[in-house]
């Protein structure tokens, strides 16, 4: 590679974005240790740094994934063979986990591989973002026309959400649906066609409901799921049961105040918040580091999300733009659902806080996705500053290959 070209590429990387990502990831590693050290010993009977060591290992793996996707040109993910592989492998993984997966917390959502647990739904989440971005980018010239065949990606999305929901994992299914909706609404698809199809779905659902509801009623309105609703509506009334974690989350946030009790000084992590290092890590952050600690996390996450939307707006390539929207939406939606659950704004759904909560599959997903976003940002900046000054055309602006119309 030409030395000048290499320098220009290095100068084009979005270093504020990279710094924000790694500040959050390292901060998350510290908070995983602080929030899990008591539970590791008293609840799981392992060393106090058990979850810290596992998260550190996953962060190292995630670092390689981040560097790989940050360096590899993002357009490679729009290749026909790549999109076809994603299209077929995603549902196969979700179906396989139903038969071969490990059950935890009443959901069969993980593959156990020795000491590792992998959640296919997290990998499928990124795969669906790539698939929808590639398909709708390929259809750009025809999206304004109300052609019925354009709706197949929506049917595919609903199929993926259904496979995740029956694990059952309604929280992840809802997140996937929201992310897909952001991409679809940003793609330029005919609103006239979308409204017609929405009315069609409502009509078909109404007709099919009497036949389907008897089989799914027990899963949708299970005792555990309904208890979460009761705990959300009146946590203090159900303090000894469904409202236990939410009330203690309130106490943790209240105890922290403005400055917090100090790093490692949380009281609520002593058995009062069973998911202190996963779903409720923001409550421990609030208790130990106060409002300043929470603001630090949320401002960094907000910066990443808004930066992603800015990259999408500046990107001249439809695939890169939609991919940026999908990745940014994923971070923003999951942050809202996690923090909303911990603060009682919405029912608890059991999803991790991006880059901060304990969880290997989620961390790999977020770091891989943000590596792609960083690569898109690099191409946007390179094109704006150096493209017309060099003989090497990094972004050839060739249209995406036809045929990505599953």
Structural features:
406 residues, mainly alpha, 3-stranded antiparallel β-sheet, 13 helices, globular
Note the topology:
Layout: H1 3-12, H2 15-42, H3 50-71, H4 80-100, E1 102-104, E2 107-113, E3 116-118, H5 120-138, H6 152-165, H7 170-186, H8 191-220, H9 223-233, H10 244-256, H11 281-314, H12 318-342, H13 360-385
Antiparallel strand pairs: 1-2, 2-3
Helix pairs in contact: 1-13, 2-3, 2-11, 3-13, 4-5, 4-6, 5-6, 5-7, 5-12, 5-13, 6-7, 7-12, 10-11, 11-12, 12-13
Query: Could you tell me the number of beta strands?
Result: 3
Strand order of the largest sheet: 1-2-3
Radius of gyration: 22 Å
Percent range for β-strand residues: under 5%
Helix-strand sequence: HHHHEEEHHHHHHHHH
Characterize the largest beta sheet: strand count, sense, and whether it forms a barrel: 3 strands, antiparallel
**Overall structural domain count:** 1
Mean pLDDT: 84
Question: What general outline do the C-alpha atoms trace?
Answer: globular
Individual helix count: 13
Distance between the termini: 37 Å
Unreliable segments of 5+ consecutive residues: 390-406
